């Protein structure tokens, strides 16, 4: 159940910088839309593996009804391009094979995209609302004198988009009259397009070979885990400040995650207290998840936490405080001491 206020508020926002109403919106036949609309989906890849958010960007592009091109760049890109070409409904994959784009540095990537967008004459450019998309898209939009629309959860028509604001407590309907609409999409709102029966053509894109002297990739420190990826897992168990310490977080939460085959998440209080890695934070300033099952353990249910998990299909909560706000959004709640209840649950799940 969502707080009543969240559903009640809906605003139509017309960003002041927008202009150039297109003729596309007055024509509705599929054939006309296909002629007038063309979307470029930015396909994010890391070491040859496509990010699921990119496949969600293709799903969003399909909802527009026009032609769809995918764009991918990096070294040895042919296998990723071939994989992307198999997504049904994609007309063309534009690929640029260069190590300069491996790390997705926006200083390098933005001029690359600008050149290819200008050549393709697209009406829409769509990326996942991932760290990569958030870093890149405003820069590209600004270079083309357009306004970017972030984190959309629905497409009403080719110029009207829905996005949560105020940590998900209000839903804004945003209308854009920019000639090119730059949007990032919330992955949990658009299912990933399947890689299967498509047969898109693959074309080499323009490589402007921008001067990369201002930015240099130094290193990265990645948290590695054998558990499911938090952003896309179908089950997530999250721990909060109620876990009391990192040792207890690991002792209580990890066996529960293993028993359920779940990804581990955490509240910001748990992250800030050093119980869990920053990459596990769920919420307004962390990851937004919408798994089949979200279990909140020792989490009070602050509004900023709810912003990252309230669209989960089933929410279960364990908390010793019967008045904790998490119970207002939970489908299943257990009032009790997590240090008793979670090990008991884990043991029963292990026997199931
Ligand atoms: P608490 O609020 O301290 O709750 C701990 C809970 O554990 C309590 O309900 C308590 O009853 C329960 N408990 C304690 N002991 C036990 C026990 N033995 N058994 C069972 N239950 C027990 N927070 C996020 O999570 N994600 C965000 O992205 C985020 N972004 C933020 C952005 C901004 C700008 C701001 C201002 C805040 C943000 N926060 C975010 C912080 C948020 O407001 C809360 O402070 C935070 O979510 C609280 O975490 P918690 O529920 O783990 O801790």
TrEMBL record:
Its cofactor is FAD. FAD binds at residues 241, 267-268, 281-285, 298-305, 319. Pfam families: ETF (PF01012), ETF_alpha (PF00766). Its main location: mitochondrion. Residues 39-221 form the Electron transfer flavoprotein alpha/beta-subunit N-terminal domain. PROSITE patterns: ETF_ALPHA. This is Probable electron transfer flavoprotein subunit alpha.
């Amino acid at each position: 159940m969502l707080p009543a206020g969240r559903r009640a508020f809906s605003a139509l926002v017309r960003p002041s910088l927008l202009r150039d109403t297109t003729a596309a919106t007055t024509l509705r036949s599929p054939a006309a839309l296909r002629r007038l609309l063309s979307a470029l989906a930015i396909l994010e890849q890391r070491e040859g593996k496509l990010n699921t958010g990119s496949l969600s960007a293709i799903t969003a592009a399909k909802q527009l009804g026009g032609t769809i091109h995918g764009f991918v760049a990096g070294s040895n890109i042919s296998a990723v391009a071939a994989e992307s070409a198999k997504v049904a409904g994609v007309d063309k994959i534009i690929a640029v094979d260069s190590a300069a784009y491996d790390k997705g540095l926006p200083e390098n990537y933005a001029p690359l995209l600008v050149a290819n967008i200008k050549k393709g004459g697209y009406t829409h450019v769509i990326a996942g609302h991932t760290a990569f998309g958030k870093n890149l898209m405003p820069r590209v939009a600004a270079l083309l004198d357009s306004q970017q629309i972030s984190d959309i959860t629905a497409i009403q028509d080719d110029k009207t988009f829905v996005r949560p604001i105020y940590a998900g407590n209000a839903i804004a309907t945003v209308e854009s009259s920019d000639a090119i609409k730059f949007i990032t999409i919330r992955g949990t709102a658009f299912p990933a397009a399947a890689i299967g029966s498509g047969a898109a053509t693959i074309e080499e894109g323009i490589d402007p070979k921008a001067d990369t002297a201002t930015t240099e990739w130094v290193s990265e420190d990645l948290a590695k885990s054998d558990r499911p990826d938090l952003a896309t897992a179908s089950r997530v168990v999250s721990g909060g400040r109620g876990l009391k310490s990192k040792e207890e977080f690991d002792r209580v939460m990890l066996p529960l995650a293993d028993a359920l085959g779940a990804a581990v998440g955490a509240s910001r209080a748990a992250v800030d207290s050093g119980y869990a890695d920053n990459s596990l934070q769920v919420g307004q300033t962390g990851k937004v998840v919408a798994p089949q099952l979200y279990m909140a353990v020792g989490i009070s249910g602050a509004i900023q936490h709810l912003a990252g998990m309230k669209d989960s299909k089933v929410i279960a909560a364990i908390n010793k405080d019967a008045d904790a706000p998490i119970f207002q959004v939970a489908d299943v709640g257990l009032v009790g001491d997590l240090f008793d209840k979670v090990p008991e649950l884990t043991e029963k799940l292990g026997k199931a």
